[in-house]
Design brief:
Layout (H helix, E strand, L loop, with lengths): L29 H7 L46 H11 L6 H12 L15 E4 L6 H9 L7 E4 L6 H4 L7 E5 L13 H12 L1 E9 L5 E9 L2 E7 L6 H4 L3 E4 L4 H12 L9 H11 L5 E2 L3 H7 L7 H18 L12 E2 L2 H18 L6 H13 L9 H8 L3 H13 L3 E3 L10 E3 L13 H8 L21
Parallel strand pairs: 1-6, 1-7, 2-3, 3-6, 8-9
Antiparallel strand pairs: 4-5, 10-11
Length: 478
């Protein structure tokens, strides 16, 4: 066969040819190339360099594919005063209705992945999104994740016992999203999966010694190191998971009420356009990846004094509150002052947004208050007790609250977990007979309202606050 001209080398005498004279210029896909010449190997990928003066190409660990370069300048979204309000508006367009608060909390938790690192006290925080089947928990999380570029998250529905150890993925400043808690193998004896994940979350890195055969044929120990920091978003139908995992994350619960079901019906019947351009959001989070992540909270000591130390769990949850304040300040850093070291100064606006999102979650987590769902359930059991003297059944509760039996059973288990109701039925396989247990606690406020924190920090250099903008308002101009 006569030599074929190679337009890459501008020659017929080059190393781009196989023995049969087929040019390996990258013009043909490898599969097609091997079909023409079985001895040919796929072309090596060319190493591309960005033009002078542009940001370098960024290759995420998840894929060999090259994503768009990191933005050299802040994208337009970064100048908005209330970015989460814009997010709530856009995620409604994606079909998430009634769960905007949960979605905004998940989004802010994913932003906390940027925190942490050597010498840093701040760590990313994690979340468990709980709800009955078909309650929309996975859809809410999945829709929120789509607002981030693929290299920011690592999504899994299941994994093998040592998947985290042997994975070639980079976990550093990425969020692991598990779409079902069964992947943690809770209840399995010597559960290595959950232990490895807890180590990665708590220590910010994973070290796992393995035995391998050396070049001389002898056995030796090699330590596999997976660097963090990282955080976790987990979904589950369970009311609670293993305590070691439960206390390392904030618990978010989806809405199971008939009103929410009606909102879902209306959304399903809506034939309007539901598209959202996600590229501006991806550009925002790619820019944040290399922006400033150091945040100081000048009102932190005052907040620590105002939060009552009612439970040991608060030691972790208070850290989660601070992490979310930092994340919100990072998100709005173009409208936040800086200190002499260049750190972002969090403001009371950041605290107020975070408080609105998770004040109830934190209080419920330590038993300082009861969610409206549990309170309504206990009050319904109490109201039905006069008619059902031997105990209230899930069927009776479902009729009383306008729920299906599955949702009613889940509510009963939630109230039982906290001791507010008990099950008289001791025979296995028989319907539960539920009666009132411990009295409901009085509402106790753990995270103080903004005005109390303002009064506490009055006269101190708190970094000031920015003007309170409405949805779509801009701060300083691009």
């Amino acid at each position: 066969m006569s030599p074929t001209y190679c337009d890459r080398c501008d020659s017929t005498d080059c190393k781009c040819f196989t023995a049969s004279g087929i040019a390996r210029t990258g013009g043909l896909p490898p599969a097609m190339l091997r079909a023409v010449d079985p001895v040919a190997s796929p072309p090596k990928a060319a190493t591309l360099s960005p033009p002078a003066g542009t940001a370098p190409l960024h290759t995420p660990p998840k894929s060999l594919a090259t994503v768009p370069p990191l933005p050299a300048e802040p994208p337009e979204l970064a100048y908005d005063l209330r970015i989460l309000d814009l997010f709530k508006k856009d995620i409604r367009k994606k079909g998430v209705v009634g769960e905007e608060t949960t979605a905004a909390t998940v989004k802010l938790i994913i932003v906390t992945r940027l925190l942490g690192g050597p010498g840093s006290k701040s760590k990313p925080t994690s979340a468990i999104v709980k709800g009955d089947s078909s309650s929309g928990k996975s859809y809410t999380v999945e829709s929120t994740v789509r607002f981030f570029p693929p290299e920011a998250v690592l999504e899994m529905t299941a994994m093998s016992e040592r998947a985290l150890v042997y994975s070639k993925e980079d976990f550093k400043h990425r969020t692991i999203v598990l779409y079902e808690a069964v992947a943690l193998r809770e209840g399995v004896q010597d559960n290595l999966t959950a232990y490895l994940l807890r180590s990665l979350l708590s220590e910010g890195r994973l070290e796992y010694p393995v035995t391998v055969r050396a070049k001389d044929g002898n056995w030796t120990t090699k330590t596999i190191v997976k660097e963090g920091p990282t955080n976790l978003i987990l979904t589950t139908t369970k009311v609670s998971i293993h305590a070691e995992n439960e206390t390392r994350a904030l618990s978010l619960t989806t809405d199971d009420t008939p009103d929410q079901t009606q909102r879902v019906f209306r959304e399903l019947a809506n034939e309007g356009e539901g598209g959202v351009d996600l590229e501006p959001w991806h550009q925002l989070h790619r820019w944040l990846r290399t922006a400033e992540h150091r945040v100081t909270i000048p009102f932190g000591p005052a907040l620590a004094e105002l939060v009552p130390p009612v439970a040991i769990r608060l030691r972790r949850d208070f850290g989660a509150v601070l992490a979310l304040i930092r994340a919100h300040a990072i998100l709005h850093q173009l409208n936040r002052p800086r200190d002499s070291e260049g750190r972002i100064i969090a403001t009371l606006d950041d605290y107020e947004v975070v408080r609105d999102l998770i004040a109830g979650v934190v209080s419920e987590g330590v038993g300082a208050t009861v969610s409206p769902t549990v309170r309504d359930t206990v009050e319904a059991v109490s109201a039905l007790a006069g008619v059902h003297q031997d105990g209230v059944t899930a069927t009776a509760l479902a009729e009383k609250l306008g729920l299906d039996k599955s949702a009613a059973r889940r509510r009963l288990l939630m109230a039982k977990r906290d001791g507010y109701i008990t099950n008289r039925e001791e025979r296995r396989g028989h319907p539960g007979r539920w009666v009132i247990g411990e009295p409901l606690p009085e509402e106790k406020e753990l995270l103080p309202p903004r005005h109390r924190l303002e009064n506490r920090t009055a006269g101190q250099a708190s970094g000031g606050t920015v003007a309170r903008g409405s949805e779509g308002d801009k701060g300083v101009g691009p």
